[in-house]
């Protein structure tokens, strides 16, 4: 990859969506700690979006709390007096507990303060999924509508899938939504696929280790895409350079420099061979045939947009009333959590490769589209909210779940862990988390520049 190949406009849009989504999640998560802390009369010294080592981009003190914006976009924090946290304020902990300190409060109050952020993230995810369901409903391309079947790449062909097949089931379970094919295969550790070929359904055995290859392959486009004709939807005035004739909406491309093709992916494979060249496209226009001469640019493009398979084949749309959206939103929140936990299990059992699945803020930011899309934005924000809740409730020191675990032990045994033990536990947890973050960031840079 070179810097010249980067679409900086797309990068800016992705970054904008990521920062907005991340800011919403962090502020509300920290508010989940801040509010109960104030309800229980704890002093809150700081409330920050992003971390602020050495300096802050902005800060303002209101009452006893300093509100600020840090410059390291890896999270945020509230500093509650009398609590061993990211600030590692040991000096304060050496003094006798004060009534307004966290450590002076009953265990049940401290537990509520600790899990408040997780609770807020869960509630936020539920509200977002309800809202998405109510506002946008469902729209998807059903497998049965794929008139020409699929275009199989080399990975799919390696297990016996052919161009023109329809993949109608995974592990014997019918596949309705074509877009969920690969996620169903990965999360259900697919062992068989049911494929419709020439009107007959046959089974294909998925070999051991295939899902690992599929996870890696998904980053470059996936193993199967809809097969559809190359019909012109619109022409780019900026990019199209015609030397004879013009493409118009509704033209169906059928040949390039005399080489016939039927489907859009075949055209894409052909046109790559003619970069920076004048070519002749043969098209069907109504009942007539036309020959268009035009330039293929350095990117292998001629400046037209094809009619998408969603339009060519038709989608299924389902709308929900608010009453219907509420249980559906709860269901989708649970399904998102279940899929995430399943993915983690596969990482620990070796069914997915950590180096292909783990990513830092770069990978997370790259999941946002290059054009602003509110439906996609809120969907990803809902997913990240439930993931953030799950990760924070894990019983790891330095995370909310670690603090909650020690508090629960105290409530059960009646014995409070010593401050020195909590300091060491916090340090160990932070080292673990920082090491994991550094490893994930390193993987992302390796993927960018390999």
Automatic annotation (TrEMBL):
Protein's membrane topology: Multi-pass membrane protein
Entry's EC annotation: 3.4.24.-
EC main group: hydrolase
A biological-process GO annotation: proteolysis
Gene Ontology molecular function terms on file: metal ion binding; metalloendopeptidase activity
Keywords: Hydrolase, Membrane, Metal-binding, Metalloprotease, Protease, Transmembrane, Transmembrane helix, Zinc
UniProt domain PDZ: residue ranges: 109-199, 206-287
Subcellular location: Membrane
Principal localisation: membrane
Cofactor requirement: Zn(2+)
Short name of one Pfam family: Peptidase_M50
Transmembrane segments: 12-31, 111-136, 377-400, 421-441
InterPro entries per record: PDZ, PDZ_sf, Pept_M50_Zn, Peptidase_M50
A GO cellular-component term linked to this record: membrane
NCBIfam families documented for this protein: RIP metalloprotease RseP
Family: Belongs to the peptidase M50B family.
PANTHER family (UniProt xref): MEMBRANE METALLOPROTEASE ARASP2, CHLOROPLASTIC-RELATED, REGULATOR OF SIGMA-E PROTEASE RSEP
Protein name, per record: Zinc metalloprotease
Organism: Sediminibacterium goheungense
């Amino acid at each position: 990859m070179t810097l010249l190949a980067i679409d900086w406009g797309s990068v800016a849009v992705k970054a904008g969506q990521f920062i907005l989504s991340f800011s919403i999640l962090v502020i509300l998560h920290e508010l989940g700690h801040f509010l109960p802390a104030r309800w229980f009369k704890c002093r809150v010294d700081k409330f920050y979006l992003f971390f602020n080592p050495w300096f802050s981009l902005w800060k303002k003190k209101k009452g006893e709390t300093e509100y600020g914006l840090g410059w390291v976009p890896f999270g945020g924090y509230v500093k509650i007096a009398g609590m061993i946290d990211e600030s590692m304020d040991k000096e304060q902990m050496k003094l006798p507990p004060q009534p307004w300190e966290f450590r002076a409060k009953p265990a049940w109050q401290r537990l509520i303060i600790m899990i408040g952020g997780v609770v807020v993230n869960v509630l936020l995810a539920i509200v977002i999924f309800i809202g998405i369901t109510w506002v946008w409903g469902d729209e998807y391309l059903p497998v049965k509508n794929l008139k020409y079947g699929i275009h199989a790449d080399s990975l799919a062909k390696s297990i016996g899938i052919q161009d023109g097949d329809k993949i109608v089931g995974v592990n014997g379970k019918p596949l309705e939504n074509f877009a969920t094919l690969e996620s169903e295969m990965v999360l259900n550790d697919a062992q068989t696929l049911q494929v419709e070929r020439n009107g007959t359904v046959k089974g294909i055995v998925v070999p051991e280790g295939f899902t690992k290859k599929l996870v890696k392959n998904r980053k470059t486009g996936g193993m199967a895409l809809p097969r559809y004709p190359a019909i012109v939807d619109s022409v780019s005035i900026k990019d199209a350079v015609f030397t004879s004739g013009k493409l118009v909406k509704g033209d169906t491309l059928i040949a390039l420099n005399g080489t016939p093709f039927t489907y859009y992916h075949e055209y894409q494979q052909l046109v790559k061979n003619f970069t920076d060249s004048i070519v002749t496209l043969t098209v069907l226009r109504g009942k007539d045939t036309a020959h268009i001469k035009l330039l293929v640019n350095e990117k292998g493009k001629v400046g037209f947009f094809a009619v998408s398979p969603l339009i060519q084949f038709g989608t299924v749309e389902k709308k929900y009333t608010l009453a219907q959206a509420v249980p559906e939103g709860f269901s989708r929140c649970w399904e998102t959590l279940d899929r995430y936990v399943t993915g983690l299990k596969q990482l620990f059992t070796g069914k997915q490769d950590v180096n292909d699945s783990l990513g830092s803020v770069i990978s997370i930011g790259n999941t946002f589209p290059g054009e602003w899309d509110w439906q996609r934005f809120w969907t990803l924000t809902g997913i990240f909210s439930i993931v953030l809740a799950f990760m924070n409730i894990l019983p790891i020191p330095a995370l909310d779940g670690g603090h909650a675990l020690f508090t629960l032990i105290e409530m059960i045994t009646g014995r409070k862990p010593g401050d020195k033990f909590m300091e060491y536990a916090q340090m160990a947890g932070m080292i673990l988390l920082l090491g994991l973050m550094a490893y994930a960031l390193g993987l992302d840079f390796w993927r960018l520049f390999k």
